[in-house]
Amino acid sequence: MLKVEDLSHFYGREKILDNINFELKDKSFTILTGESGSGKTTLLSIISTLLKPTKGRVIFTDISKNNSLDTIRNRYIGFIFQFHYLISHLTVLENIKIVTT
Ligand SMILES: Nc1ncnc2c1ncn2[C@@H]1O[C@H](COP(=O)(O)OP(=O)(O)OP(=O)(O)O)[C@@H](O)[C@H]1O
Ligand SMILES: [Mg+2]
């Protein structure tokens, strides 16, 4: 289960997320909707550990605290980016290899 507690986020002085609380149950399917600029990508970036929230926390209740952040990212998080920055003249394999070489 994933739990979001008292989560707020600012970019500079601008408050983007204001004290958000929710839980996602295992194997559930959730859709996040909102107007452009409402903070969807910001929230997903925080949940997926790519961005540290200004306030509050994200708890993965079923993942051992002994795991490193790298392990949690590798094993438990998948993220398809809104802006993927793939290089169009390269193949899929070449795009993947470029970050590992
Ligand atoms: N790195 C950043 N620095 C400063 N402001 C940012 C940054 N990223 C996003 N913002 C601002 O924060 C607000 C929320 O942006 P976010 O990208 O989270 O919204 P969104 O709901 O994903 O929008 P969209 O539907 O257009 O993808 C917007 O006003 C945006 O301009
Ligand atoms: Mg977005």
Report on this model:
The structure is a single chain. The chain is α+β, with helices and mostly antiparallel strands and 101 residues long. It has a single domain, classed as 3-Layer(aba) Sandwich (Rossmann fold), CATH 3.40.50.300. Helices cover 25% and strands 27% of the residues. It has 3 helices and 3 strands; from the N terminus they run ββαβαα. The chain has helices at residues 40-47, 69-76, 92-100, and strands at 2-11, 14-24, 55-60. Strands 2-1-3 form a 3-stranded antiparallel beta sheet, with helices on one face. A hairpin with a 2-residue loop joins strand 1 (2-11) and strand 2. The longest helix has 9 residues, at 92-100. Bound molecules: adenosine-5'-triphosphate and magnesium ion. Residues 11, 16, 34, 36-42, 82 line the site of adenosine-5'-triphosphate (ATP). Adenosine-5'-triphosphate (ATP) binds at residues 11, 16, 34, 36-42, 82.
